[in-house]
Amino acid sequence: MLDWKKLDKLEELEHIKELSKEKPVIIFKHSTSCSISAMALNRLERSWNETEMSSADAYYLDLIANRDVSNAIAAEFGIEHQSPQILVIKNGTCIYDNSHMGISYSDVKEQALA
């Protein structure tokens, strides 16, 4: 089972950038009002293998409730806002992002563990 860490404060972005220098960090930006977002989240959670991904931390952002954090992520990592969206952060940089039905566990795993 995927053990999400909640991302709901702007200050946590700096922590995530620093943490990503030690291990990969995954951020899933979820729209609680979007059925595609719910489907992408469900697919990711069903596929997630905690043993394979034990070296990564996974953060969950409810972007409806935390729009400011979502906007800060886009600005901080130089990516276009999407919903749903997944990001892989390494060494303080977003090395991978995808959205909607492009979100797949195998791609996230490949990028995070490379």
What is the CATH class designation?
A: Alpha Beta
User: How would you describe the shape?
Assistant: globular
CATH architecture term? 3-Layer(aba) Sandwich
Would you give the CATH topology?
A: Glutaredoxin
Q: Give the domain tally.
A: 1
Supply the CATH superfamily name: Glutaredoxin
Strand fraction = 15-25%
What's the helical proportion of residues? 25-40%
Low confidence ranges: none
List its salient traits.
Thioredoxin-like_sf; single chain; alpha/beta; 5-stranded mixed sheet; 114 residues; Glutaredoxin; 4 helices
What does the model show?
36% of the residues lie in helices and 24% in strands. The chain has a single domain (5-113), classed as 3-Layer(aba) Sandwich (Glutaredoxin), CATH 3.40.30.10. By secondary structure, the protein is α/β, with parallel strands linked by helices. The protein has 4 helices and 5 strands, in the order βαβαβαββα. Strand 4 and strand 5 (93-99) form a beta hairpin. The chain is globular and about 30 Å long. The chain starts with a strand and ends with a helix. This is Bacillithiol system redox-active protein YtxJ. InterPro entries: BrxC, Thioredoxin-like_sf.
